[in-house]
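# step 3/5: fold
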Amino acid sequence: MKNLSEQNFKGKIVIVRVDFNVPLNGKFQITDDSRIASALPTIKQLLGDNAKVILMSHLGRPKENEERYSLKHLVSHLESSIGVKVYFSENCIGETAKDAVDKLNYGEVLLLENLRFHKEEKEGNVDFAKQLSELADVYVNDAFGTAHRAHSSTSVISQFFKENKYFGLLLKNEIDSLEQALTNAEKPFTAIIGGAKISGKIDVIKSLLLKVDNLIIGGGMAYTFSKAMGGKIANSLVENDKVDLAKNIIEKAKELGVNLLLPIDSVNADDFNNNANIITSDIINVPEGFMGLDIGDKSIQLFSETIQKSKTIIWNGPMGVFEMSNFENGTKKIGEAICKSTEEGAFSLIGGGDSVAAIKKFNMSEQVSYISTGGGAMLEYLEGKELPGVKSIQE
């Protein structure tokens, strides 16, 4: 892995693929700047070397040049975060971009307009990538959140830089942390997989079964497993076409000697509403007219005991509808168990948008080992897939 911190980029023009796909409110104010904060170490190192720093990113899924997806809305926040003036180019390619780079002084930052204002970005168009490459001497990829996409700015562009391409500090930390969990995992190794559906996590569950000692299942997907065991789940979320798959996963875990932990009890509501009527039941016997929205105290105790004996922990997906205060307890308590285990020496890796949101909601960010910035990229890495944005730097 080519190490950015061992290089000096004085007198160089460096183009950095960052992931500034941040949430904005109606006034175009950033509501969560985690992705920007994560990119700062790379940006500041390059500025410290007195390089010209060009930042490129996408924002949202624009159909065309939509005002609400313009990266110009990030400029003032970037300036205050980085501590230097940030210039803006109204196009990411062409004469507009070239002129902006020419006017830029060394030790300054230029932000290019949204890459996805050009359809060629998502198409992985070579000519578009070449035009981006012509703006700089060096390419740095620091966008783990898009490393699983074979887009022009994430993988195709690197072919034009040969020896002058590097992993940013964030992307390197992501890969190192995932490798620590997957390749150098200290046992017992526990994976906690939650969220609404099995369908998006089939491959990662199958892959983790070959690596972990314990696999904990929570969230909406647990009710498909409950049904697979003959349970009555009433109005709970279920993927009927995945019931056989859930049975297969249960059997595969037994075959491989993996301790598969499924919820015992369920916190149920008669409506998808924080103020609904609430009762707790066995997860295999949810009363008619109710739906399961969180795990109960017995499940929390079972899961927590296993987590606290673990030395390596991966968590992707909440235990319930943690956005509602009456159904946040399961997710919060599992988070607390992970923090306690981390304090006692375990390595904990948290990834996936909802898991990260939960960790932040409960102010646990500083109490876990590593928080991944890329949900989809993390899942694909855990599945054993090659990430185009990583492979292209290594070639």
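# step 4/5: annotate
The first helix runs from residue 34 to 48.
# step 5/5: archive (pending)
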